[in-house]
Write a structure and sequence with these properties.
mainly alpha, 4 helices, disordered C terminus
Length: 129
């Protein structure tokens, strides 16, 4: 993460390599990585951040979901670490944009990720009445 002129820039890269260690199976390493990802995604649902940071988190959550879909353990580890780094900070500068809970689209993606990591699948969203 870099700060320039009052703006925050986060470098997102391709995380992991296709064909890395698979996420399926019962190894303790896989269970630990999935548990870390679950904890990070669950924590993110409670965060209050600026809108700009939520956009970054949306990209990181997409990378986590892609890692799960491609069964790539290394990519999930990297994306989980990225999510933790983009999380809230203790010190907030005067004049920074207000912090808000996750926007609905990000909250939905995080919820789906939590359900997937928890071993259940998220259902289709309900139709508005």
């Amino acid at each position: 993460m870099a700060f320039q002129g009052g703006q925050t820039f986060v470098r997102l890269s391709i995380m992991g390599t296709p064909g890395g260690p698979p996420l399926s199976g019962e190894s303790s390493e896989i269970a630990a990585v999935r548990a870390d990802a679950l904890r990070a995604a669950s924590d993110a649902l409670e965060w209050r951040l600026t809108g700009e940071r939520w956009l970054t988190i949306q990209q990181v959550v997409a990378a986590m979901a892609a890692a799960l879909e491609t069964d790539d353990l290394d990519a999930l580890k990297a994306a989980t670490a990225e999510l933790e780094l983009v999380g809230p900070v203790r010190i907030v500068r005067i004049g920074t944009p207000p912090v808000v809970p996750p926007p609905p689209q990000v909250r939905d993606r995080l919820n789906r990720l939590v359900y997937t990591l928890d071993g259940t699948t998220a259902g289709e969203p309900d139709e508005p009445e």
